[in-house]
Write a structure and sequence with these properties.
alpha+beta
């Protein structure tokens, strides 16, 4: 009887542990963003089904009400005219605001306020409505959002920051909304090279593993260490900046990564933000802090998961 009890206890503990790990695993999703002629039109049409079912004047009133919420520091210098003026910035096709209601309960989930960033490039400030009716700043920047799934209980969205220079990293952030509790998780933040060939599918329950040796993370499943003219450090024209060849990052032995997919002798991974990174070439001008004393960039504000390919043997 005692042996049976111990066995049941072990099974329960394993089940609880597995559940806790599953709950902490980020939502990984990868898709090539194709910037074609009707890109903006398709982006706008994709959000239309989630627009709150309220008259336009009431939608505008919701957008304006955020400007009166003084606890939202990001809006203290935001001009109310931005919500109605479409003629001065050269991007009249972009709506000045969005009030999105994903579960269609006639209450906002996310409010997006139009803004112009470096470039100039159009984009939005994103705010989440909490259960108590107050709003919380999510993120802001150029680029677009994409709804990956949405139902009465849950909505998952990705924000793609986009790039201005060809050498910049792609940056994707995921907003995972729980409609039953009206809460969200802003994870993961993904960095990867725009040239990265993604696997056809991603493991839905990825394992967290450690590399056994010094590891080069590459943007493609091949060893390319020969420098070409475009690959020389400091001479990038159309390619994402690399350390050498197709190497985008280096990690120490023991670094942890999610094991997402395999292709032959290669594994597609996402290295943890707090793991032992030696160096990376991936950067983005809109995702950097600066040291006021030196005037130099100090790296991304929120550390990312850096994604790419490694030989499967590094885990053995």
């Amino acid at each position: 009887m005692k042996k049976l009890y111990n066995t049941c206890l072990i099974v329960c503990l394993v089940s609880i542990y597995a559940t806790s790990i599953a709950q902490k695993t980020p939502y990984f999703y990868f898709k090539k963003r194709v910037y074609k002629e009707n890109f903006v039109k398709e982006f706008i049409q994709s959000l239309k089904p989630y627009e709150i079912k309220l008259p336009k004047d009431k939608q505008l009133a919701i957008a304006k009400s955020l400007l009166n919420r003084r606890y939202l520091k990001r809006l203290r210098s935001y001009s109310p005219k931005t919500l109605t003026n479409k003629q001065r910035d050269g991007y009249p096709t972009y709506p000045r605001y969005w009030i999105l209601d994903f579960n269609q309960d006639r209450k906002p989930d996310i409010v997006m306020l139009y803004n112009v960033y470096f470039g100039p490039s159009p984009g939005y400030l994103y705010f989440f409505r909490k259960a108590d009716g107050t709003y919380e700043y999510l993120l802001d920047g150029m680029g677009e959002i994409y709804v990956l799934l949405s139902n009465k209980k849950r909505t998952v969205i990705q924000h793609d920051l986009g790039t201005i220079e060809g050498s910049e990293s792609e940056i994707v952030r995921t907003i995972d909304i729980n409609h039953q509790k009206q809460t969200y998780k802003l994870v993961p933040k993904l960095y990867f090279a725009s040239e990265t060939p993604f696997p056809k599918s991603i493991d839905q329950n990825p394992k967290l593993m450690r590399v056994k040796r010094l590891t080069n993370l590459r943007f493609s499943p091949e060893v390319k260490d020969t420098l070409t003219e475009k690959d020389k450090p400091g001479e990038y024209i159309d390619n994402t900046k690399t350390l050498k060849g197709n190497i985008i990052a280096k990690y120490k032995a023991g670094a942890q990564a999610y094991y997402l997919a395999t292709k032959g002798d290669w594994t597609f991974v996402a290295f943890l933000p707090n793991t032992t990174l030696i160096k990376t070439s991936l950067r983005h001008g809109m995702d950097e802090d600066f040291d006021s004393k030196t005037g130099k960039a100090t790296g991304p504000r929120v550390k990312p998961y850096i994604c790419g390919w490694v030989p499967s043997k590094v885990f053995k």
